[in-house]
Write a structure and sequence with these properties.
The chain has 358 residues and is an alpha/beta fold. It is built from twelve helices and twelve strands. α1 links the parallel β1 and β2. The chain is globular. The structure holds nicotinamide-adenine-dinucleotide and 2'deoxy-thymidine-5'-diphospho-alpha-D-glucose (DAU).
Length: 358
């Protein structure tokens, strides 16, 4: 088993202005000051350069506003920066949106990934694949839905159920196809539900925190019995760093925190946490919980067996759920302006001012 530590001159991160991406970019810029970090992002509704204000002037950071399906523009970025690793996060990521607009998900998540694989192959084939890596950041949702027991491991058969997970599964298959057919060096990680600062407030945890702030109903789909396995976002970032530098070529690794909880429990915990922090009578926020129509095709349960990345790469999550939820609630309460900007759309003006686009 090779545990070679790869070193990179230039890291291309796609989707670096999104939730997980901004944490990845910040981590790489700070931890590897001699490495150029190129952030390629289209800035969809989910991409926000305000997330990167603290490092935007770093000498080793470059931003490229490009769509991953644009063949000409992505070719220009690959030719200009000549990355030796691509950490691919850019995607349409919200399951509910994929039910409304499935084709956008296929276009970005599947076709966009195919284009990036091709760009990487075209750039690297001339100089040889040694020391290069195409790293696909994927999801546990590709495995489908579990019953009351059991875990997803790396041998679990793909069985995606939503347009989002199907578009990611197709992308993962293309990644492996480029590995087997062309010898492109690849690694895939499949991670469980992330939460933490800078997550767009359409996802369960920030949506609930934001609605409690405004005294709005807290929508729980179905009976709230669906189970997700929660991981604090910076723990995902340390897994990405390890897998990018030491992951075995051609392998997949599952990443998850062993924090499986029913949605209703997560919502109730958030209510109690906020009431405690604001000095409200316990139960005040729970009164806002509202059961609503279920998500079509709603996967019942996800749970990750993360033994492989733990034993091979020494990954361990540092933040437990209690601590992580508390940090997250504090962050959203301390960052009112960020929340107001992303819910009003004002954050788009930041890019226009910063890059003088009219
Ligand atoms: P996000 O929606 O917060 O961010 C996505 C980013 O991709 C945004 O900055 C957006 O502007 C950019 N983007 C979208 N379409 C693009 C395009 N066509 N070209 C260039 N950029 C584009 O997503 P996230 O939650 O940070 O997820 C990032 C990645 O991690 C995704 O690939 C997702 O499947 C995967 N993932 C997410 C989770 C999770 O819990 N959030 C868990 C496991 C895996
Ligand atoms: O498992 C990893 C996946 O986690 C990622 O690949 C996706 O990009 C990410 O969005 C997330 O998908 P989920 O669908 O699990 O996350 P979401 O926050 O949308 O929902 C979490 C659970 O909460 C899910 O069972 C649906 C439920 N839910 C969600 C919302 C938005 C509610 O009950 N009410 C809500 O308002």
């Amino acid at each position: 088993m090779s545990m070679e530590l790869r070193k990179y001159k230039t890291i291309l991160v796609t989707g670096g202005a999104g939730f997980i991406g901004n944490h990845v970019v910040r981590h790489m810029v700070k931890k590897y000051p001699q490495t150029k970090v190129v952030n390629l992002d289209k800035l969809t509704y989910a991409g926000n350069l305000e997330n990167l204000r603290d490092i935007e002037n770093a000498e080793n950071y470059v931003f490229e506003k490009v769509c991953i399906t644009d063949v000409k523009e992505t070719a220009r970025v690959f030719q200009t920066h000549k990355p030796d690793v691509v950490i691919h996060l850019a995607a349409e990521s919200h399951v509910d949106r994929s039910i409304v607009s499935p084709l956008e998900f296929v276009e970005t998540n599947t076709v966009g990934t195919a284009n990036l694989l091709n760009q990487a192959k075209n750039l690297w084939i001339a100089e040889g694949f040694a020391g290069k890596l195409f790293y696909q950041v994927s999801t546990d949702e590709v495995y489908g839905s579990l019953g009351p027991s059991g875990y997803f491991n790396e041998e679990t058969k793909y069985d995606p159920r939503s347009p989002y997970s199907a578009s990611k599964a197709a992308a993962d298959h293309l990644v492996m196809a480029y590995y087997h057919t062309f010898g492109l060096p690849v690694v895939i990680t499949n991670c469980s539900n992330n939460y933490g600062p800078y997550q767009f407030p359409e996802k369960l945890i920030p949506l609930i925190i934001n609605n409690i702030r405004h005294g709005r109903p807290l929508p729980v789909y179905g009976d709230g019995s669906n189970v997700r396995d929660w991981l604090y976002v910076t723990d995902h970032v340390t897994a990405i760093d390890l897998a990018a530098h030491q992951g075995r070529i051609g392998e997949t690794y599952n990443v998850g925190g062993h924090n499986e909880h029913r949605n209703l429990t997560i919502v109730q915990t958030l209510c109690d946490l906020v009431d405690g922090k604001l000095g409200n009578t316990q139960g005040t926020s729970r009164n806002l919980i509202t059961f609503v129509r279920d998500r079509p095709g709603h996967d019942q349960r996800y749970a990750i067996d993360a033994d492989k990345i733990k034993s091979e790469l020494g990954w361990t999550p540092a933040i437990n759920l209690k601590e992580g939820l508390s940090l997250t609630v504090d962050w959203y309460f301390d960052n009112d302006r960020w929340l107001e900007n992303v819910t009003s759309g004002a954050y788009k003006e930041y890019y226009e001012k910063m890059y003088k686009v009219t």
